[in-house]
User: Fold this.
Amino acid sequence: MTDPKDLLYGWIRERAGDERPWLDAQLAQLAAPDATERDLHMYLGFAPRRLGKADLALTPDDLAQADAARSGWDPSGWSIDGAARILGLLTYSGTRPFAETFKDLRRTSDAAEMIALYRGLPLYPAPESLHFEVGEGLRSNLKPVFEAIAHNNPYPRDHFDEHRWNHMVLKALFIGAELGPITGLAARANPELARILVQYARERWAAGRPVMPELWPLVAPFAETPEIRAELDRARAEGRTFEDLVS
Amino acid sequence: MLIDPHAHMISRTTDDYQAMAAAGVVALIEPAFWVGQPRTFVGTYVDYLSTIVGWERFRAGQFGIRHYCTIGLNSKEANNEELAEGVMEWLPRFALKEGVVAIGEIGYDEQTELEDKYFRLQLSLAKELDLPVMVHTPHRDKKQGTTRSMDVCEEMGLDPSMVIIDHNNEETVGEVLQRGYWAGFSIYPSTKMGNARMVELLKQYGSERIIVDSACDWGISDCLGVAKTAQLALQSGVPESTVRAVCYGNALAAYGQSGQMKESDWLEPPAIDQRTLYEGNSILRGGREPVIEEPGAQRRAGLTIE
Assistant:
């Protein structure tokens, strides 16, 4: 079992070129017992300036290794600076609880930093302690920040209760974020979400707006529950059309 | 293509963003400033800085405008020593954020001792981080305040080529240019500079190191100040190369010294930005073919000159 930290380091080091010595010196400083929060702030600030912001552009083999190291971890869309920031955070030897350090960084982050912070969720220690922080990210008005949590990230699948899960899916529809990249979408389908989605479809029809077809697979498994059956029959009687998977 | 290098968008509406984009503004700079009343907690200042490096940057991107900002403690709030001390502790953390192109706007308001103290401290920070400086010159006793600002910049060891002296007028511009600084002009009704006066200055001084901005904020101000000045200048026979320099190229050259602002940011946004922060003119979304539109293709449609 490879440590995700080692994988990250390997990928970044391969792409760091002349900045390798800088990268290694910074990581050594962050790991040292006397590392300060200021060291961490400086490293996070300089990461894109030193290493650039290009895509990591990982190979299928790299991605397979990532999934083997941490089930569901999918760094396919990660950038070099984002990956380096996450590595720095995993390397930092700070004495405060991880969630406190995370909170401090999140509160003063620019958008790219915030995206990186949330993309790293599957890799952090004490994942349950980040409950509040993840809530703040989901409430963000920055679509890419929301997507950093919702897309290609196993954290929601593994740690969200049903209420938070359902509201994440619903918010994705509202802000035009795709449902497809949500990790565990089919596995976490539930009757309450199906009810919410049918109600949402009704509101869209009433407003003369299109209904995104991707929501119907989440309704289909529960089409025979009485409440949803009644709604679907009513919709059909009104001449609404929806996916074939919901008969 | 136009750049508005001084626009307080936190005080403006989405209509303004749409109008600016339609008028050809491809990038703007939002200087940290006084929001119309004093802040009474360090925390509110910190959240304000978070907003201009975070949310406002994203908001601008939704209208196809690239947003940059400057980080600093403004001269008015430098007079609240407790607040000023607190803010100074946070500035280094914000100065290295993405898209921060200068320390600013800093300088004098009433020219008090505290204003002087924090102006100098921030000039040191700019020097340490190798960032340009945006200097706000005072509205009252402007001529002396402008001279003093430049004297202090030189005392603190700054190279004039790294300093933009803003809110100039007919009385200050000569000395600013002669001493090697960039000279900013804010097209702001009634208190600063008007379109027609600006055009006269361009005829007199040409384009070298002159920068036009709107300084639009919470007051009676015009987010199309740069666009209208450009149009009036062209109509008045000012050469196009001069107009391009003062309404676009010079701001890019001055603030580009930060390493955080490049023409390719809006001409060829990297794919990662197309997926995240910038819904600009050439954008790949949801697997659709990109819609390529000449930046500013809609500009100059129906702009009126006051």
About this structure: The interface with chain B takes residues 41-42, 45-46, 48-49, 53-55, 77, 79, 107-115, 141-142, 144, 178 of chain A (CB under 8 Å). Chain A has a mean pLDDT of 94.
